Amino acid sequence: MKKSIGIGLTGLGVVGRQVVSTLLEKADLLSEQVGCPLVLRQLKLIEPDIAQARKMGIDPKLITTDDDQFLANPEIDIVVETIGGEEPALSYLERALAGGRHVVTANKEVIAKHGVRLLALAEQHGVGLHFEASVGGGIPLIAPFQDDLIANQIKGIYAIINGTTNYILTRMAKGGVDFAPALSKAQELGYAEANPVNDIEGIDASYKLAILASLAFRSQVQPQDVYREGISRLDSRDFQYAHELGFAIKLLAIAKQSDESIEVRVHPVFIPQDALLAKVEGVYNAVLVEGDLVGQVLFFGEGAGALPTSSAVIADIVSAARDVGLGVSSRARWSLEPGKRVKPMSELETRYYLRLNVTDQAGVLAQISKILGDNSISISSVIQKWADSATQTAEIVIMTHPAKEAAMQKALTQLEHLAVIKEISNFVRVEV
Amino acid sequence: MKKSIGIGLTGLGVVGRQVVSTLLEKADLLSEQVGCPLVLRQLKLIEPDIAQARKMGIDPKLITTDDDQFLANPEIDIVVETIGGEEPALSYLERALAGGRHVVTANKEVIAKHGVRLLALAEQHGVGLHFEASVGGGIPLIAPFQDDLIANQIKGIYAIINGTTNYILTRMAKGGVDFAPALSKAQELGYAEANPVNDIEGIDASYKLAILASLAFRSQVQPQDVYREGISRLDSRDFQYAHELGFAIKLLAIAKQSDESIEVRVHPVFIPQDALLAKVEGVYNAVLVEGDLVGQVLFFGEGAGALPTSSAVIADIVSAARDVGLGVSSRARWSLEPGKRVKPMSELETRYYLRLNVTDQAGVLAQISKILGDNSISISSVIQKWADSATQTAEIVIMTHPAKEAAMQKALTQLEHLAVIKEISNFVRVEV
Asked: Using the beta-carbon criterion (under 8 Å), do A140 and B137 form an inter-chain contact?
């Protein structure tokens, strides 16, 4: 048994700072859990993190700016990366693994894009790559697929994994406000960044879904495999109609697996109001997993923030440290199953919600119904919502029975060319 | 690395049978996850399990009735116990651990009563004791405390961990029926046993809470430490009033920890209708955990049944097998922190719901208010629900502000002696 286990950390943003604080504050507990002390041996930092470290009272002797020296430091058993972003984080992780260091990272982008390769690299060098913090803050979402649900064939994942968009959608649903003011409020509260594109366009969620789907399906799912639509085209009226129809609107990250193919997509969906996911409000995250043995299990919690994320990072450090102490490589095994094709969106079959702005005149519905019917799309309900006498337009809301996405896209193109249709205001898929 | 890992199984009830089936059906997947095949080497059975094994087509050469031979079989690395109940399961587990076998068990009673001692025994003999299946079927509820949330000081656990009672309460809430017919329906559907006392009196939940609290608080919490009230005194009217007041009624298993003491109790509670736990319906289980870093996390799923439970048992077998393969003892470390006193119920402080059957005359409320006031209990709302002219009685529903349990118990005794009070129909604690 080793006398102590050395930690090297790179990146001192909010998560990195919290990890350092927790390592120091909870040293006794962690030592008890590992079997020997965890010692922070070195920090590889650049400005302004160096100034930050000084402010925190970190011993300046522990700080280096020299990558080579840091990555070759024989006293470091575990490299913790909390820089974020693709580079230079990716290079650090590669070099750390190749140098026989166990690695803990919170970096969703690197894992989503390069995880499969990095896991192979870790295995090759007999060390572990831990990334629980890359998805869903402190909610256990990686370990379940590597350990707890290992006996299951995972059939589906339905996830609210972006707190920013869930906050915005909750505000739109509860406050009856439109997208822009809801986004402003999120920015004001620090839930959304000044440039919110990564969140609101579903890019962040697509990274996380790629990670979950890769693990769950033992496949290499890349972020670019994920079909992606953001939330900016949703309108307060969509929420009002959804509510009337018994639905909530959520940005879901969905992954499903059949015998032949997998499907991975992030887009707004209508889900039944009484579904558990519909109750997940504000910045909270929740992931529903469906397995052949376990049935449905759901994991819920804060999906971001320094404290929850540090909870996952420290758990990973403890896990890696136990392996170091026992002198073994990572216990989690990673093996790719024969690749399945990613099902194109055109093959999706689901129900749809359509909101159309039309000329307020007789026979409009007949023309719309004909186009839908010609494309084998049958209507489950139609509501004419209001007529505006000034513009002589009306709003029509249509819910369809299950139909093929390809047929729906064709129908939408044809509807666009219909003279009586002023605008296809929105269409949203339904998930039940 | 071993060429294969040997499994011995004892007990062939619904869970045992599913474990055997899954081990055989998913042999390839499991072998891939462990690094070598998992081989079912022997089953120690008694009638009628032997007949069952024959029906399943299990090779008769694998079956023994000889305890000593089974426990001494050098080909068995992992003993899986799915007998249930205290004895003879406890003796098997003790002998298996003492003989250097890793152990996987689904036995909540043995773990709740003897877990701390068995964990020490396992550590002493360099093997692992795995019991994920003892609480909450396939929902990961043990691993989070041993691994994922390890960096947290756990402040509270709020759990719906008995599916039978949650089914009954859901029926009472939705169907407006009383306890007896709801129980009958649960029995008819196989959710409740012919003798339902273990479920409806909260005994099952108290076992599970003792396990969770022991792990979460690193304490030795025994089932008899858990304050316990069942659900049989709830009436359809309690659900009606709860609904009107904005609450749901659930049987919660609650564990809290302060710096000085822990509190563990199982009883019906009023919880706000919009709380996530209020949405957990039917036989589903859900456990809300509050940690200092992670905030609130919730785990939800099917809490019983052969398939979900086998999901947890197999995950434990894989975990033990990875340890066997790596030649290490269990990675989970178990250490008791200095014992904290268990806070007596009398020190509890919470809000209360009171339903009283009173004589329908002037001045009744004044007498009731006086007794409550004399005991420093202040009323937050009073509703006189109905008057029955035939019996000249009325029903009064009172919600209090937070008050001490000791004061409330004293007040209840005094109220009982009040001539105008026909009956204290119910009182239920509120948890927010």
From this structure: no
